Amino acid sequence: MEKFIKLMDQSELKVGLVGNPNFKTIMLPVAKESVFGEEAENLKVWGVDPEFGKHFVEGLQDKFQVLYFDYEGHRLKHPNPKNLTSENIVKDLLLIADEMNVKEFTYYGYSWLALVGLQLAIRTNRLESLIMGGFPPIDGPYKEMLIVTNRTYEQALNNQTSPVFNEQDKTKSPEKIEWDNIKVKINTNQTKQFVTLYENLKEFDDREIQYKLAIPRLVFTGEKDIITYGENFGSVTVDIVGTIQKNKQVLEHLGWDVEILEGDGMNHTKAMQPVTVLSLIKPWLVKNSNRG
C-alpha cells in the first residue's frame, strides 16, 4: 500500500507500507527511490546502491511490516528552511504513523536521520526499539555539524552565480576529488534547513536524556567513519567511529548494543548500504522483537 501524506508544512510525501500486519513494524525513513541508467552508474562509483530503498524493504518485509519513505529526498525537493527542527520532524514522523494506522514501531535512521530517531525516542512512548547508524547517541557532533552546515549555506549563497566544478567530476571516485576546491552550488533553502536543524540542537545534552530510553537500542558505525572537512567547510573533523569507540563502555552500561563494522573502506557511505546494514540489524530486530 502506498499513499501521499500531507506533512506539517503541507508538502506531500509518498509513504508505503508492506508486509504482514501481524508482524512488528519498522519505520524506514531512509528508503530512497531507485534510480537507473547513467545516474545509477554514477552512484555505484561512490559505493551507493542505486536501488537502496527497494533492497532495504525487500530485505525486511519477510519478517516485519515495513513503513517506508524517503524523508531526506523529500526535504531536498521540498525544503523547510525556517522550520526543520527536531520537534517538527518528530511531528511529521508521528503523523505518518497515524495516517498509516501504525501505533507502535521500531525506528531505523542513519546519519542525521539517526539523530532524529533519538529525538523521536524522547518525545513518544510509541517506539518499541531504536537503531541509530552513523551517529553517536552520546557526544554527538552537533556543534561540528552546525559549523559545516553554516559554511555550506554561506557557500551556497555566495556561489549562486559562480561556475561549479566540472560536471565530469561527478563520475570520479570520492578519493580523486579535491574537496577543498569544491564550490557548493545548490538551492540555498536546501542547506539552510540543516543549519536550522543543528541550530535547534546546539544546546541539546544527549547524555542528560539517556535515562528516558528504556527500549532495546542499537548503534553502529563503520570503522573508517571519520570525515575531515577542509577550510571551505570550517576545518572541522566529524569523528563518528572515534566518539562511539571512546564511549562504548558507557553506552553499553546505559543499555545500548554497540557495533563497529569492519571491512575494506567501511566509511560513512559504505556502512549505510543495505547489504551491510541488513546483515546486522535484521538478526538484532528478530532477537529484540519480543523485548521492550
UniProtKB/TrEMBL annotation:
Keyword Hydrolase assigned: yes
Name of the protein: Alpha/beta hydrolase
InterPro entries, per database record: AB_hydrolase_fold (IPR029058)
Top-level taxon of the source organism: Bacteria
UniProt keyword Hydrolase, yes or no: yes
Alphabetized Gene3D superfamilies for the sequence: alpha/beta hydrolase
Keyword list, A-Z: Hydrolase
GO MF term set: hydrolase activity
